[in-house]
């Protein structure tokens, strides 16, 4: 079982990347579970045709002792198992603690044993790598981390901070940084700017994702490119499929 966390600056395209990666992996025949780790609970929306699914935290409150796995895990039309951790209302409580509670409940109900995913993808809020938001790597849930970044200064700054956090966790035997996904914003000399920053971040570019109207067209339909362009040629389908194959070729794989 491969356990992957996707981090990056808020608004950089983590959920778009995660959802299209999940759809690509499913298209390749893998069983995939995507877990959104953001109080906005919109990580899996484009896998679920624009619908936001109930969150683990909301279902814990609503269902109580009657809570079952099918109250938390929702299969998408592409076959991806979708989960949203959720969080408290803005300004109330700790969103990071919400992620921890959601993970604990999934383990308690033996979600991973029941669904037996080949790949778990954790889509984690912004560039916050403290408390509950570090749980996917600090708690040993994810073994590989990919950072999504553009060539913008603040995006690269966030990538550097995330890399430092991962390095600290790696010393304790947790996750490792497996690469950077360049989600292009079409700024001048973007690839060059990112490559100049790579030594400081301490990784390499695993995939360049060009800016494309296909993404906006697919998201307007509440879909990934794998559904929106299922019957025609799509450059972005090829890009995400290539990324999926590279990730699956990576050596890290765990049984627990």
Topology, please?
Blueprint: E1 2-8, H1 14-27, E2 32-37, H2 56-63, E3 74-75, E4 81-84, H3 95-108, H4 111-115, E5 119-124, H5 135-138, E6 144-149, H6 153-170, E7 176-183, H7 190-201, E8 205-209, H8 213-220, H9 225-228, H10 235-249
Parallel strand pairs: 1-5, 1-6, 2-4, 2-5, 6-7, 7-8
Antiparallel strand pairs: 3-4
Helix pairs in contact: 1-10, 6-7
Textual characterization of the structure:
With 256 residues, the chain is an alpha/beta fold. 40% of the residues lie in helices and 17% in strands. The protein has 10 helices and 8 strands. An 8-stranded mixed sheet has the order 3-4-2-5-1-6-7-8, sandwiched between helices. Helix 1 (14-27) crosses helix 10 (235-249) and helix 6 packs parallel to helix 7. The termini are close together. The relative contact order is 0.19.
Keywords:
single chain, 256 residues, alpha/beta, eight-stranded mixed β-sheet, 10 helices, 8 strands, 40% helix, globular
- Name the assembly state: single chain
* Average pLDDT figure: 90
Helix content: 25-40%
The biggest beta sheet reads:
8 strands, mixed
Q: What does the overall shape look like?
A: globular
Category by helix and strand content? alpha/beta
What Rg do the Cα atoms give?
A: 17 Å
Concise overview:
By secondary structure, the chain is α/β, with parallel strands linked by helices.
